[in-house]
Amino acid sequence: MGRQSEIDRREAGNRLHMGRRRALAAVLVAVFLAGCSGDEADEYSAADTSAGQTVSVSVPDLSDVARQGGELFTANCSECHGPTAGGSSQGPPLVHEIYEPGHHADFSFVRAVETGSPQHHWNFGDMEPVPGLSPEDLNKVICYVRELQYANGIFTAPAGLAACEV
Ligand code: HEC
Fold first, then answer.
1. I need a labelling partner for 142 at 20 to 30 A (CA). Which of 52, 82, 117, 133 fits?
2. What's the rounded Cα separation, in Å, for the pair 140 and 109?
């Protein structure tokens, strides 16, 4: 075997190595993008939902504010988000790690209700704005959802219950 073909072989080896590294980089980028687009919700997609709530929610002793929020929730939100925010065939559970305070702060609830929320985490379609709730009402609704989340271990830092401090 001549010297030239030895060099050719080494270069071919190098190219193969580079190709593998590029493929690995592409995989890492894909994984990163999947993480950002909220694909973690896929396992809870609309196809999996039945007539009842998507997740079972245990209801704790609610504060007064949360209790009032619960009534508003039943009237305005439970049709899609389930009777105790555990989801339905029309909308996702809000007692879910996706909606913990660190990921969906209280203002994202305000925004969803006031301006709607285009489909992005699930397959239920868009959420339309929900009219008729004052800022105080909305705060009570958020308190209700937060107390349910807290009681069901979605988050542990009491700071997440800020909406209940009124
Ligand atoms: C007609 C059905 C429907 C009603 C009524 C409804 N929602 Fe929604 N909501 C949805 C759907 C569907 C989504 C999920 C959109 C997605 O991420 O794919 C959603 C998403 C949300 C989100 C997440 C927004 C975000 O930033 O990702 C919040 C918070 C929320 N709803 C709160 C509420 C509250 C509070 C009420 C009552 C005042 C309410 N929704 C009423 C269907 C509804």
1. 52
2. 11
